[in-house]
Amino acid sequence: MLVVDSVNSEDNQYCVDFFKRDDGTFGFEEYRRDIEDYNQWFKIGCFDTLLFTTKKDAIEAAGDHVIWLKGQLE
User: Fold this and answer.
1) Which of 21, 25, 31, 38 has the fewest CB atoms within 10 Å distance of its CB?
2) Overall average pLDDT of the 53-57 stretch
3) What's this model's pTM, rounded to 2 decimal places?
4) Domain positions in the chain
């Protein structure tokens, strides 16, 4: 799996990583920055098992599932 793009929330507390799997499908996952250790990220979504044939499809789905991201994609 290779991360192909990452988008941070405006306050840098959350991010969504978009990735391409070895089989050519795409996906995304949402993370939250650790309050106690600002350098660590923790998975908070359960989106990494969703499969998309294109990165564009993954981005559109992420906008539907991740509230803060939708505002940044508009």
Assistant:
1) 38
2) 97
3) 0.88
4) 2-73
